[in-house]
Amino acid sequence: MECKGAAQWSSIIVSSVQEMVQEKIITTVPPRYVRSDQDKTEVTDGSGLNAEIPIIDMERLCSSTAMDSEIEKLDFACKEWGFFLLVNHGIDPSFLDKTKSEIQGFFNLPMEEKKKFWQKPNEMEGFGQAFVVSEDQKLDWADIFYHTVQPVGSRRPHLFPKLPLPFRDTLETYSAKVQSVAKILIAKMARALEIKPEEMLKFFDDVDSMQSMRMNYYPPCPQPDKVIGLTPHSDSVGLTILLQVNEVEGLQIKKDGKWVPVLPLPHAFIVNIGDVLEIITNGTYRSIEHRGVVNSEKERLSIATFHNPGMYKEVGPAKSLVQRQKVAKFKRLTMKEYMDGLFSRELDGKAYLDALRN
Ligand SMILES: O=C(O)CCC(=O)C(=O)O
Ligand SMILES: [Fe+2]
């Protein structure tokens, strides 16, 4: 099958942090990982603000009696936080437990097995890192595995199709289930925004719409305050559905200038608005900066599933919102143009989205 798309995007290949930590006892972080630019001080204690991270109940969102009040909560969450926890999403907890343990197993494979899935020069998918564009760029304290799931014709032949079983089947089922959740959420967001569901869904529901996955593995670090697991960024996509794979804290989101830890809630998804949805909603829903921090004791794992419009779809603010707000806050461009611009730069907060403002 023709393999279109992602091949032309790349990230410079870097060494595995997991391997570095396993091979020898490291007491001092190598200079390339030291991030004196990152400020870790402004973190809330978690007890106050974290308790307020909105929790959205998908059963209520879909019930005829409770829908209106839950849609109001969803609207508030997307405007004020750009993040929410999703409970009662209908995906069986035992299936999520199986998915989590198989992801853990995948990262625990011997290095020679994992090398088969390593990034190749001038490519971006597989084990490695993303957004590394220069040899002296500072690095995140993590390994990732990034791959395209949909459209099927864009899967790299040596990655998803070659994953070991039963992991491959589990990820296939997981991605389909999460895709259904994403579509329901996007339709509910349209309702919350008082626009026709088709006006939002048309970006996401054709056969070419893109889904990709990023599994993050953050090894323990002897000097956790010196490094960053994942550089502060907003997600460049439409919608992200994240599952914390183990019960180790590390995700923080920026709220009112402070970093707020998101405590793992087993079997709940963490959902966030990405830059593309901020564009489509003409800035009404916000794509919020977040980051990953690490600790000295335990590894941390997460899996992010990204939902995006098709590669040749034009994205821009929804026309009815532009009419209502009397201004188009972002430029219109195809996803291809958008992604070409994105993958040629370092990850840097919301800088790319800012460059697309009118
Ligand atoms: O590891 C996490 O909790 C966050 C992951 C994330 O933000 C991403 O993959 O974009
Ligand atoms: Fe993210």
TrEMBL record:
Report whether Iron shows up as a keyword of the record: yes
Gene Ontology terms for molecular function: metal ion binding; oxidoreductase activity
User: Where's the Fe2OG dioxygenase domain?
Assistant: 206-309
Key words, A-Z: Iron, Metal-binding, Oxidoreductase
Q: Tell me one Pfam family matched here.
A: DIOX_N
Q: Which family does it belong to?
A: Belongs to the iron/ascorbate-dependent oxidoreductase family.
Mind telling me what this protein is named?
Fe2OG dioxygenase domain-containing protein
